[in-house]
Amino acid sequence: MCDCLPTPIDPSEVPAGRLPRELVSDFVAELVAAMLNARIYFLDHPRVDQSLLSLTANLRDVGVDSVKISVVESFLVYRERPLLSASMSASRLIQSLGAWEAGGLEVSRGATLLELRALLEVLLTKPQPGEGVEDANRQLETVSCVNVRLLPRFTKGVLEEGVESPAQAVLVPIQLYQSIVDVLQSITLSVCQGGTIRFGPVQDHAEQVLKRLEDEDGSLLNLARHEQYDAFTFGHSVRVAVLAMNYGRALTTNHEALVRLGTAALLHDVGKALIPFEILHSRHRLSAEERREINRHPELGAKILIDHRDADPLAVAAAFGHHKTLVEAGYPDTAHEHHLSAITHIVKVCDTYEALTAARPYKRPMSPVRAYRIMMSMKGHFHPRFLRRFMEVTGIYPSGQIVQLSDGREAQVIRQSDGLLEPVVRILTDPGGARLAPDDQPEIDLSDPRREETLTVAEALEGERE
Description:
Helix content: 40-55%
Number of helices: 18
Distance between the termini: 38 Å
Strand content: 5-15%
Shape: globular
Radius of gyration: 22 Å
Strand order of the largest sheet: 3-2-1-4-5
Structural class: alpha+beta
CATH topology of the largest domain: Hypothetical protein af1432
CATH superfamily of the largest domain: Hypothetical protein af1432
C-alpha cells in the first residue's frame, strides 16, 4: 500500500451549495478518521496527515474564524444546534473529550498541521487521575499551540433557545448507533494490526438492533436516514444492517436467523479494512485502477472471516458475494457457478440502496424513488422477488423522510403501513407551516380506511433533518 502523502482536497470539487453545518460535519468526520488512523499507524503517518490537511480545507470552506464544537450528553453541538449526523460516528471523540472533562473543542482557521497533530495527541492520551481540561490546554501550550484548545464544561445550556435537546427523543438509539460504530472501529483496528475479530459483541449489537426495531417506534430507522459520510464506511455498515434486519422481519420471525442476518450485514464490508486508506477515503471519483483495488474488498473480507473458526458461514458468504450478480457478473470473479444465499441477496439489496440514497463527498443523496428506478433497471443484478419485497417493506417514503401532505401540513414518516404510498406519519406543522409542540404532533396512518378525511402525501421534502 502506498504511503505517499496524498494531495489535499481541492475545495472547488466540493458540491456547490453545501451548508456550513454540513462542512462542520465533514470536519468532525475527518477528525474521527485521523484519530483512528493514528491508532492504526502512528501520529505523524502520511494517512494521519491527509486527514489533518483535510481539516484545514474544511476550516477554509466553512468560512469562519474558528469552529467551536460543544458536547451535550452523547451529541455534538455547533452554533447552539445539535449535529445529529456527525454525532453518530463520533463516539470516540466524545469519549476523549469527556475523559478530559472538556465541554468541547475549538479550532481556529489558521491552525497548522503541527497544531492539529498536537490536538490529536491530546485526544488520544488518557489523562492521569485528577487531570482535566486545563491540563490538556497546558500540554497544547507547551508546543506553542495558539489555534486549538479544549473548552471547559458549560455551566448553562449550549442549545439555542427553543431548540429541544435531541436526547429527549433519540438518546437511546443514538447511543446504540455509536456503540456499534465503536465495535466496528475496534474490528478495523484489530484487522489492520493482524489481530482477530471478537464476534460476540457484533452479535450482541445485532440483538439490540432487532429489539429496537421490534419496539416499532421508528427511531432507529429514522436515524438511518441521516446520511453522514464517514471515512471508513462504518455508518454505511450500520445503516445496511438496520435496513436488512427491518427487511428480514417481514420475511421471518426466526430470531436466530435475524441475528445472523444483522451480524452478516454489519461485517459485509470488513474487507475494506485492508484497502489503502487514500483510495477508501478518496473524495474524488476513483480511477479504473483504484476501482479495481477497492473491488478486492469482498474477497479480502471473506478471507478475513474464514480465518476465524467461529465465523458464521453466512457472514462469510455475504462478505464475498454482496457484489455478485445473478448472471455470474460483478466481483470477485469466480471460476465456477456461484449461488447467492438468501442473506446475501438481502445484504446486496440493502447495500446498493444505502449507497444510492446516502450522501457522498461527490454527490447528493438520491431520493428513494430514483434509487428504486435505478435498481429495477439493473437487469440481472438483484433477485426480483427480494427487490420487490424490499421496496414494499422500506416504502416509497422511508422512515425519517419529511413529506408535505395534501392539506399543506408537513409530517415525518415513522413507519410503513399496508399501503405502499400511505405510510404512518407524525404531523410536524399546521397547514400554515407553524411548528407544533412535540405533545401536539399526532400520528396518522394514511392507509387507515376509517379516517373521515382523505389525506395523501403530496411530495417528499429535502433539506436538513437535524
